Structure to design on (193 residues):
């Protein structure tokens, strides 16, 4: 919707006010990310309890049980990474840029757009699912074939979902709107197509 000539008038003032409110509403997402930080702290607490139980009881564990315990810790670590990806990328994509100047800033933080966020999210879920399948395979001394079949089936669905996300992102890159194309933006000023 184009604004009239000089941009003055009741209609354009209402429109500007509405656009301002819509733009500022992005800050309503900030409490979600703060909640995820608290969730990450609770996950750390659970990780420390799991680690302590593992470390204090390791002398009585068999090799397979040690591997299962370590896989459980890896699972929790992947989940923590997933939460961090959502916090950093979600905040930067939907709320505001994180303006922290430090040499420790992860290189991927400013580079992940919404499509990349979806891919990283799905890849993390696939990794977590793979660990669960591996844990199920390691527990084959107590065969539960239906549980293992469910784990493999769910993992396969996550793999297919990841493939669909990647393919749909590739297709959307090819079919982007001409106004979003960098080449179109460069040639628009010259009047050449």
């Amino acid at each position: 919707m184009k604004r009239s000539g000089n941009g003055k008038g009741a209609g354009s003032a209402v429109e500007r006010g509405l656009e301002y409110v819509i733009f500022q509403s992005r800050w309503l997402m900030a409490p979600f990310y703060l909640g995820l930080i608290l969730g990450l702290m609770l996950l750390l607490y659970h990780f420390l309890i799991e680690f302590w139980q593992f470390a204090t009881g390791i002398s009585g564990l068999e090799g397979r049980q040690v591997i299962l315990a370590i896989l459980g810790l890896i699972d929790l670590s992947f989940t923590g990474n997933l939460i961090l990806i959502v916090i950093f990328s979600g905040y930067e994509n939907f709320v505001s840029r994180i303006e922290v100047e430090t040499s420790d800033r992860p290189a991927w933080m400013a580079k992940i757009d919404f499509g990349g966020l979806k891919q990283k999210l799905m890849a993390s879920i696939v990794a977590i699912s793979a660990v669960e399948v591996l844990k199920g395979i390691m527990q084959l001394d107590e065969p539960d074939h239906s549980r293992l079949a469910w784990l493999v089936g769910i993992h396969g669905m996550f793999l297919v979902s990841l493939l669909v996300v990647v393919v749909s992102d590739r297709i959307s890159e090819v079919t982007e709107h001409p106004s979003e194309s960098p080449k179109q933006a460069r040639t628009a000023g010259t009047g050449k197509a």
The chain is about 70% helix and 0% strand. The chain has one domain: 13-97+108-174. Residues 13-97+108-174 form one domain.
